[in-house]
Amino acid sequence: MDALTTRPELATPPDGRAPTIAGAIERGGRIGRYLVLQVQGVGAMGIVYAAYDPELDRKLAVKVLHGRAADERELLHALLIREARALARVSHPNVITVHDVGVHEQQVFIAMELVPGVELGAWLAERARADSAPPWRRWRELREPLLAAGRGLAAAHAAGLIHR
Q1: Which member of 8, 49, 114, 152 has the greatest number of CB atoms within 10 A?
Q2: Cβ-based burial of 54 (10 A; exposed 0-12, middle 13-18, buried ≥19)
């Protein structure tokens, strides 16, 4: 595999500083017109950055997809544009707003609404640690956030989108 097809890994500096991400864009770098503020996270699809859009004066999230071979990149870009158009027809409080898609240094990116919070897995793990009650007693606390996510997913499906 070449450098474009590898997934970045976390690297912990020996001096105890916070882990860095190989290949991540540093604070102040750019992705298209967007100014990188910090890395928000790394997932199977790519690196998500908190960023700033100087043209519209707003913070947003920019996901840069992990490198792909040229033919995959073109196909993925076309797919993302099609999905962004479909998503633009969805207006739902539990569906993120996509603002832009593009290519930066041969990697596809998606600029979208920046939503504060934590990942679902981390939220569930924290609830499990904080509550000593058995899981069958915690269902009421978990029900509404999970139903809200399901409603957002249903709205996306109704617009012809499939969550990947």
Answers
A1: 49
A2: exposed
**Where in the chain does DSSP place strands (E)?**
10-11, 20-21, 30-31, 34-42, 46-53, 58-65, 98-104, 107-112
Residue 49: closest CA among 94, 128, 114, 116: 114
CA distances from residue 66 to 93, 105, 125 in whole angstroms, order as listed? 28, 12, 27
The string of pLDDT tens digits covering residues 16-71 is: 444 457 678 999 999 999 999 999 988 877 899 999 999 999 999 999 887 767 77
Instruction: Please identify which residue in the block is written with the tokens 């999905």.
Output: 83
Could you give the CA distance from residue 153 to residue 157 in angstroms, rounded to a whole number?
A: 6
CB 12 within 8 A of CB 22: no
Q: What are phi and psi of 145, to 5 degrees?
A: -60, -40
pTM summary value: 0.75
- Tokens for 14, please give them: 């020996």
SS3 58: strand
Q: Checking DSSP bridges between strand 46-53 and strand 34-42, what pairing results, if any?
A: antiparallel
